[in-house]
Structure formats: C-alpha cells, structure tokens
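Continuing the series of single-chain predictions for the mutant panel. This is the parent chain; the variants come on the following pages.
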Amino acid sequence: LARDLAARGATVWGYDAAPTTLRRARRAGAVHQVIGSDLARLAEAQTVVLAVPVDVAPVLLERARPYLGGASLITDVGSTKQRIVEHATRLGLGARFVGGHPIAGDSGAGWMASRRGLFAGARVDLCPTLTTSAGTLRRARALWRAVGGRPALIDARVHDAELACSSHLPQLLSLALAGVLAARGISRQRLGPGGTEMTRLAGSSAAMWTAILGDNAAQVTDALDSCQSVLGALRGAVARRDRQGMDGVFAEAHRWMNAARVDALPTGGKRTGGK
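Parent structure:
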C-alpha cells in the first residue's frame, strides 16, 4: 500500500518495529518520513493505516490513540474484522474508523514480498462501525480506489464468518495436505500443477496465520466441522467404491462452480424483450 500510494504522489510516513524494513522502504521511495516508536508524529497524519498482524492491531491502536486527533480516517488491513471494529468503538474512535481487508494476499510476507499493483482489481472489504461517519467512509473508498481496489461494504461479523470458509479454511487444508505429503516422503517437486497450487499456501507466515486463526477461532472451527462432514461422506463413498456417492459430491461442486461462472458474466451482454 505504501508503494502504490507513494507512486501516486501521496506523502507516506511509516513505522515498523524493524529498522531494516524502514531503511529499505525509504530507499525505495515508498516511505518519505519515519514515525518514531513513540508514535507522536501520527498527530500530523490525515489517514492512518494499521498494517500489522491482527493480534497486534488492537494494542497498536490503543498506543496510537492519543495522537489520532487530526486523522480523518483510521483503518487497517487485517484478515479478521469484528475484534478491531469493536475495539475502535470502545476507544471512542468509531466515527473515524473503517475496518479494511484487501482480498489480495499470497503466501509471501514482509517488505521483500511487497510489490506495486497488488490491489489492482482486487475486492477490498470495508467494515464500518455503527457510528462511522459518511465522510470517513467516502475517504476509505477513495483510498482503495486510488490503488486500483474495488471497495465493498460488509458487516464485520458477516465478513469473519465468510472468510473462515473462503480464506482461512483453504489455508488449513493446504497445511494439512502438506503435512500428509511430508509424512509420506513426497517432495513438492513431485507434484503436478494441481498439487503445487493446493500446497502454495502452506508456505504462508505462521505468525500471521496463528493470529488470524486465534482471532476467528469459533468461525474457523465451524468451517472445519463442515469440511470434515463432507470429507467423511467422501471417504465413505471411496471406501465402498460407491460411484453414485462420489458423483454426488462432484455434482455439488460442479453446481457451485457453474453458479460462479454465471455470476461472473457481464450484465447487459444479452437482452430479452423490448427494443
């Protein structure tokens, strides 16, 4: 985000616990000034973005609170939203806070994995508080549109339930598959394209993901239970050599895939009736 905003002419001030990261960001021109560990320079910021693991964000927001009087927008980029939205409200920052989650991550982490253009065309979930002002929400939308994102409003609780299935569950399945392959002595070099893609997420940051999974534990557990139910049915069908049972699982998956293709069709491409 710093790379993209700086490239578009914004003045970006940065804080990071690692001095090496800040030096690299400054050399790259992504950060123009350094915010000290006391965070006092935040008092001059118009927009403040927390780009830290989800278990750190509430603590950092609390530390920053005395210096946020001049900020028109306070937001974050974490993969879970309910906790940080509620915390911002408790701190009295609700009117100027919008939870943010760009759906654009990959298995890389840190400054060295960052790149310009990451958010181009990506959906960015925005989760306002109950008291977020209209002006703050406009500013949040403008921030993400400026770097090519597609902002979409969603309730924080709904977001966390959906992401438990659409993002957090795939991460765990990738870990589980990598664990099975490792136990069987099968290297990644032996995998075809499908296996390689399915295990890509196993290389993700453990520190980041344990924080996400802990923050969204109830929703992720529910997603795992649903997955375990489907896997159990599929295991039974395979063990019985029950082609009809296996076909049923494939049919349900194909219905979901086909529905996604229909949703992706552009509107207005075909008209019925009228002139």
